[in-house]
Design brief:
Elements (H helix, E strand, L loop, with lengths): L2 H27 L5 E2 L2 E2 L3 H20 L2 H10 L1 H10 L14 H35 L4 H42 L8 E5 L8 H9 L1 E3 H11 L8 E5 L1 H7 L3
Antiparallel strand pairs: 1-2, 3-4, 3-5
Helix pairs in contact: 1-2, 1-6, 2-5, 3-5, 5-6
The protein binds zinc ion.
The site of zinc ion has 7 residues, from loops.
């Protein structure tokens, strides 16, 4: 089993747990609103509470484990490379040079920050919704549902997408860095397209897994055609030329 896939699976279930926890805690934040006949009241207190809501949302999310998860994701970073490497020892080694440290650090920080960008977007949306609900004195039960939808629908989905996409990009970037370090010319770069083939594999990835072996040119064509590939769990795994000609194309 691909270690990238294992990590993504593990992260996915942590995110689900955090969101579940956060939703329970956040629903209790709504108990602080003044409500009459099930509707939010347009009062000074309710408006003031809504203004502070975004900070309360952050701390609630972090109490539910979101920040801890982001930290874990950052700390696991080099381990993902190592595991990926260990699973592919015959063909590939992540031999980073000291000069790569800054780049790897930057990738890991960007991935970590991305999780907080997701958090900020969702918290700001919830605050906007809450403001609207207070100003127009709408039913609090509907706000509770909107809150759940924002967390389970958006936060969970976006955080997973961010983690899947950025992890895969980091693995790919790490590989390309090492190929550059080893002075392997683009014309001598060959790849195997690796990753899961299951019910959620997108069409272009099914085709690429089926084709399996790629030249540099074929990889570039594929990447420019399909762009960022959000949620993609596949990587162009470098294989030496000799391996390509033995098992791959003629
Ligand atoms: Zn894919």
């Amino acid at each position: 089993m691909n270690p990238l896939y294992n990590h993504l699976d593990k992260y996915g279930s942590i995110i689900e747990q955090v969101v579940k926890q956060a939703n329970q805690r956040m629903q209790t934040l709504l108990a602080n609103y003044t409500v009459v006949n099930g509707r939010l009241v347009l009062s000074e207190e309710n408006v003031a509470y809504t203004m502070d809501l975004v900070d309360r949302l952050y701390s609630t999310l972090n109490e539910a484990g979101y920040g801890r998860f982001a930290e874990k994701y950052r700390n696991d970073f080099m381990n993902i490379y190592k595991e990926f490497n260990a699973a592919k020892t015959q063909t590939y080694n992540f031999n980073f040079l000291p000069k790569d440290k800054a780049v790897l650090q930057a990738i890991s920080t960007a991935n970590y920050e991305g999780l907080f960008r997701v958090e900020r977007e969702v918290a700001n949306t919830i605050q906007r919704l809450a403001t609207d609900y207070v100003l127009t004195e709408r039913p609090i039960a509907d706000l509770a549902n909107e809150l759940r939808e924002q967390l389970e629908g958006r936060l969970q989905r976006y955080a997973k997408t961010h983690v899947e996409t950025s992890t895969r990009q980091a693995i790919q970037k790490g590989q390309d860095l090492v190929l550059d370090n080893e002075g392997i010319e683009p014309k001598d770069r060959y790849y195997e397209y690796v990753g899961p083939l299951d019910g959620i594999t997108r069409e272009e990835c099914v085709e690429a897994v089926t084709q399996r072996y790629f030249t540099e040119e074929e990889r570039l064509d594929f990447e420019s055609e399909y762009g960022v590939r959000y949620n993609c769990r596949h990587v162009f795994q470098y294989i030496p030329k000799a391996v390509y000609y033995k098992v791959g194309k003629k």
